[in-house]
Amino acid sequence: MTNYTDDPDLYDNRMRLMSIDSSGDSDLIQCIKNLNPINLYEVGCGTGILTQKVAKLNFELIASDVNPSFLIQSKKRCSNVQFKLHDAVETPIDENIDVVFCRFVYHHIKNEDKVKFLRNLGNARNIVILDYFIPEGDTGLRIFHDYRLNIFQGNDNLINLEKDTMHLAFKKEGEFKVSLNEFYEHLRKSGLTIKYHKLIEPQEIGNPELLGMHLFVLGGKKNV
Ligand SMILES: C[S@@+](CC[C@H](N)C(=O)[O-])C[C@H]1O[C@@H](n2cnc3c(N)ncnc32)[C@H](O)[C@@H]1O
Fold this sequence. Notes:
single chain, alpha/beta, Rossmann fold, 8 helices, 37% helix, 20% strand, globular, binds S-adenosylmethionine
């Protein structure tokens, strides 16, 4: 099976169908505005779906990704953005960045690299992360995907996409979602602090710590 994060067309197609994945964008953009940045740096911009929305704010924006084929696609979407090939596990962010942000990148970083990744982002003054988290424990991944398969009932396209992602996650091929407690431990080890946290969706579950899309604003090393 092709991993959808290796193929820009597959990724775009997936995002077009999964409108649920855009539900945190407006909160993320509001967080960026509230931070009054001079410059912004996106890590893992992918095909530029979020980049083009953030570019409308008219801040100085650099968007980066580790995959050159994704950068080619994102350049077609945005004009007033500087693009850069950057592996954020290997190379730290420039120290003069006000806000670094990433959407759905953290869960594609291998668990053993996550602290290094956060430390590299921590050079910026503020870090905004939007991502999915799973329940604690061995069954967490299963509970997360069962929940989503249930809400997608009746839509074969969404069910098939979710099953593909689930299979990649179980095989540990490019999908490495963690629980919030694991994320908090990574933050502690990387020396970053939580300035703001919001559960984006699902709002209807009783325990917001259980699973879902969460938005974080973190203080970087200079902000601690
Ligand atoms: C699920 S896509 C998200 C793309 C985009 N942020 C969005 O929300 O549409 C994950 C992206 O993270 C990128 N990525 C994965 N590991 C990375 C790393 N070490 N450094 C920079 N980008 C990375 C992938 O190439 C891919 O484009």
